[in-house]
Amino acid sequence: MIEQPTEIINESRIPAAVVNGRWTGYRMLLMARLKELFREPEVIFWIFMFPVLLALGLGIAFRNKPADAARIVIAQQSGAEHVAELLRHVHSEQPLKIEVLPSDQAALGFRLGKFDVEIIPQGSAVEYVYDPARPESVLARSLTDGALQAAAGSRPTIPTSSRVNSEPGSRYIDFLIPGLLGMNLMGSGMWGIGFALVEMRQRKLLKRYAATPMRRRDFLLALATSRLILMMIELVLVLGFGVVAFHMRVVGSWLSIILVSCLGALSFAALGLLTASRAQKIETVSGIMNVVMMPMWIFSGIFFSYERFPVIVIPFIKLLPLTALNDMLRAIILQGSPLSSQAAPLAIICLWGALSFLFAVRYFRWI
Amino acid sequence: MSATSEWLVSCSIPRVASWEAGLNNRAKLNMNDKVVVQCKDLRKTYEGKVEAVCGLNLTIYAGQCYGLLGPNGAGKTTTIEILEGLLEATSGTVEILGYTWLDHPTALREAIGISLQETRLSEKLTVRETLELFGGFYRHPRPVSDVLDELGLTEKADAWVGKLSGGQKQRLAIATALVGNPRILFLDEPTTGLDPQSRRQVWDIVRRFQSSGGSVLLTTHYMDEAERLCDYISIVDHGKVIAEGTPAELISGVAGHHRVDFALESEPTVSAELWRTLPGVGGVHHDDGVTALTVEEPHLTIPALLALVEQNGWRFSQLTTRQSSLEDVFVNLTGRRLREE
Fold this sequence. Notes:
The complex is a heterodimer.
Chain A: H1 5-9, H2 24-38, H3 41-61, E1 70-75, H4 80-89, E2 96-101, H5 103-111, E3 117-122, E4 125-129, H6 135-151, H7 172-202, H8 205-210, H9 216-246, H10 254-275, H11 282-299, H12 314-317, H13 321-335, H14 343-363
Parallel strand pairs in A: 1-2, 1-3
Antiparallel strand pairs in A: 3-4
Helix pairs in contact in A: 2-9, 3-7, 3-9, 4-6, 7-9, 7-10, 7-11, 7-13, 9-10, 10-13, 10-14, 13-14
Chain B: H1 2-10, H2 15-24, E1 35-46, E2 50-61, E3 65-69, H3 76-83, E4 91-96, H4 105-111, E5 112-115, H5 127-135, H6 144-150, H7 166-178, E6 184-188, H8 196-211, E7 215-220, H9 223-229, E8 232-237, E9 240-245, H10 247-255, E10 258-264, H11 272-276, E11 281-287, E12 290-295, H12 298-311, E13 316-323, H13 326-334
Helix pairs in contact in B: 5-7, 7-8, 10-13
């Protein structure tokens, strides 16, 4: 039987005043990590300010406002003034902005997108020039036509009525904020973990830690904890901004939102850990992370719904972790869906996290 | 330098027996007899090709400051990192305080303190925070304020690491090793790139650690450092120990005690054999127009040399005499200079 090894070796040369407990190392690592993060101005900007600024910018650009006036140009030909006169006096659902210009300028203006539709009077008839690929052009053509026909005395054959509905929840900003939250959780998880680790490896700090009795599990645990703490701040900031600045309504339970965000943060932290498990240089890991994140920026429905992609690729898009996270966040925040209805995306995000973590730990290079 | 003279004595004690005894019955033995680090036939081959370490043996006794001296690429860092448990040896055995890395990794990490050749500690933490962090990894750390005091870092305790000078950073690196209250300190090139004053500060730290009973293994390619600091030196080249002993033993054994360097005007072609006939000359080296004589008794050699030159009508363009150094040992052993910077 071998003598108890730690006892012999720990007969210290200088009597120790302190005896550290099981969790001292973890606590010190976590505190050091948080101090480092908050002393780094770039971190504050990219993690906290950037998503808010993005939400602000996009929220303003795509705010729900009365529809833009349809911009109409009439080519200067005989009858142009008559058409303009008719359009100016007719009642339209959307304001019409009418200009009369020489033919060539009218054509050029339309081509450059200054006008949505060009009208070329041809005696008593008119010709519309419009672009079917531009929704506003299609709309302007139809508006103009309706207005002209009405001015000329045509009456609808079916009686119709309309009601206005633009409540919070259906606006673009409502769609955007959960997407931004998801994107932010991905970005700060990947960068916050992956970048930090490779930097430590490059500085030989990982190796230095590995040469101490530090528990390696505690090191990873401290990283994960620091992520969760930042995640809470990001969540409150982004969602709070939506609520305060855009009167967004959070329908679902905050507990579910926090739980899903934690899962997302941890899952992307694990993915960050995996991308950083071998890389020796910052440049390498930056490249890898961009390759990993790029598809999700495009496909995972941050800025627009992924339903716009061909039906055949949608099942694959749904397998991406950010798609799962965004879907869950939107379902809970906007529709108030319970967590229990989110089994599939929950499974997807957990699987990504778990597999990434296992592979990362398996191949992690301390030295 | 009482520590040094003690070591000159204890190094001559038969070793194998005391090593075995030290493991089994350590309490009864004198501190100086304990082996703290022992490696036998250490080999490390990278990717099946490059042999960085080929059959290295080394024994460090408690209280000793042991130096691994050699040029860059000699395998010093590989060796020290194997001893630190950071690299795995391809073959050979390593025992530290009687234990192996395979069986008691955590216990060994508690007992040693290391400073890597190059570590850039987190720049946005303060000196104190850095030491608290490292102290937190050990069961029985030393109080941070004691370590700060001892290393002259108290004034800088609340400065960010990024703001420290090179010498202060290096002292902090050693502080992170000392804060765990180690019994053995491993320092890989602790003074490379430092100014003379900072180097002296590092030497003082090492001596203080040693005088409090600690053992040290350090690598260096500075001769003067090894000569002044180490009690025992292994000169390493191409992954092998090519000579070992106390600095004094090495110098007198390999290089002779004194050196006479001279050059002659208009460089007459003279055979080295001519110089060898002078009294007291142990060796002749010719390097870049300068002839170097290894001499035991300069008071005999120099008059004879002067007479010989006078006789032949040659003239000196240079003549110096000095004590031999480890640099001479290395040049004599390998024909190369140690520091090709």
